[in-house]
Design brief:
The chain is α+β, with helices and mostly antiparallel strands. It is built from eleven helices and 14 strands. The chain has helices spanning 20-23, 26-35, 86-97, 102-113, 120-127, 153-164, 212-217, 221-236, 279-285, 289-303, 323-343; strands spanning 3-6, 12-18, 47-54, 60-66, 72-81, 142-150, 169-178, 184-192, 241-243, 248-254, 257-265, 274-277, 307-309, 312-316. β7 (169-178) and β8 (184-192) form a beta hairpin. The longest helix has 21 residues, at 323-343.
């Protein structure tokens, strides 16, 4: 297959197919797919929840993702051809992830985005823009995907056989091109899966953390005005801020135990620019947490502007929040913090 770039003067400049492994590490492919998850299953969005995930046999899953239905996708990357043991690898990985509970998946995801207070179900619902009444059963099914520059005949034959027995496995081949200007192109083609045939019917790598400066620079004018005051409030009251890969969590320190009460996100995050409550953490960690949460929820609903986000509430910062409104909200937060500190940790 020949690929050309069309110049402004209508000249065709050829792209030359190159050996991917000669110019790139497997990590490059991993990062490209990680940052472009829509390229994995073509017409389906997937959410990457783990990278370099260790199994109980000390093997490592390159990427672990979840689809809209909550099914897990194990992704094995090869920058060259697929060795014979590739099928055995992905089957081993699938046998490991099949037994992962929701709590374990959430732990993998939290490690991946470097935010221990992230709720996978809420993040998944927002990422896929699911309706409140759309139920998701996490890890009910598993998919396996092999991505390589060359899917060998033996791997293709075995993968087709596995699909015929009902195992959901895909093989995706890619080609790598460059031109004289240094531009790069990758093309992909399903060798096994999609329309090629039919099927019979927890330690993770991390994304880099951001900090206060990066976060504030990513906000629009409404967000800067709001979050600047919220972060100053946190600093003034000695409330620990934990920075993740997308946003932050605001915590109360109870004798070294951090209780997350709010999370903040910028416009480009899946959850969009706004704050999200973490009622679940208050209930789990604080004595009489249910009572505190009920009072907190009632005050926020009376404050106005908060929307339902599963079992939590969210406030989207899409407009200017007046000084009076900010002061009222910070008072509600301050009162809740006082109750948390007064009640202390649950007896364990």
């Amino acid at each position: 297959m020949k690929i050309y770039k069309i110049e402004e003067d209508d000249r065709l400049v050829p792209y030359n197919e190159r050996d991917f492994k000669q110019e790139n590490m497997e990590r490059n492919l991993e990062i490209w797919l990680e940052n472009n998850p829509h390229c994995l299953l073509e017409d389906e969005m997937v959410l990457v929840i783990g990278r370099q995930v260790f199994t109980n046999l000390n093997s490592v899953i390159d990427l672990l993702a979840v689809d809209k239905n909550g099914d897990l996708i194990v992704i094995e990357l090869k920058r060259d051809r697929t060795p014979r043991e590739t099928i055995a690898q992905v089957l081993e990985y699938a046998s490991f992830v099949e037994d992962l509970s929701y709590q374990q998946l959430e732990e993998v995801f939290s490690n991946y985005i470097r935010d221990e207070n992230t709720n996978l179900a809420d993040y998944h619902r927002n990422y896929f823009k699911l309706q409140e009444d759309e139920a998701v059963a996490f890890n009910k099914n598993q998919k396996m995907m092999i991505i390589a520059q060359n899917i060998t005949k033996d791997i293709k034959q075995v993968a087709i056989f596995l699909r015929k027995t009902g195992i959901d496995i895909y093989c995706l081949a890619f080609k790598y091109f460059t031109n004289q200007d240094g531009n790069k192109i990758i093309s992909t083609d399903y060798i096994v899966g999609k329309d090629t045939d039919s099927i019979k019917k927890v330690i993770s790598g991390s994304l880099p953390k951001i900090d206060k400066q990066i976060f504030l620079e990513s906000l629009n004018s409404y967000g800067k005005d709001f979050f600047k005051d919220l972060l100053e409030f946190a600093e003034k009251n000695h409330l620990p801020i934990h920075w993740g890969s997308k946003g932050f969590s605001l915590n109360v320190d109870l004798n070294g135990e951090r209780v997350n009460i709010l999370q903040g996100f910028p416009p480009h995050a899946v959850l969009n620019q706004g704050i999200y409550t973490r009622f679940i953490k208050i209930i789990q960690k604080v004595e009489n947490g249910e009572s505190i949460v009920n009072d907190f929820r009632e005050k926020l609903n009376n404050f106005g502007g908060f929307e339902s986000a599963g079992s939590e509430l969210k406030l989207m910062i899409n407009d200017l929040v007046t000084e009076d409104r900010k002061e009222e909200l910070l008072t509600i937060i301050s009162e809740t913090i006082s109750r948390i500190e007064k009640n202390g940790l649950k007896y364990r």
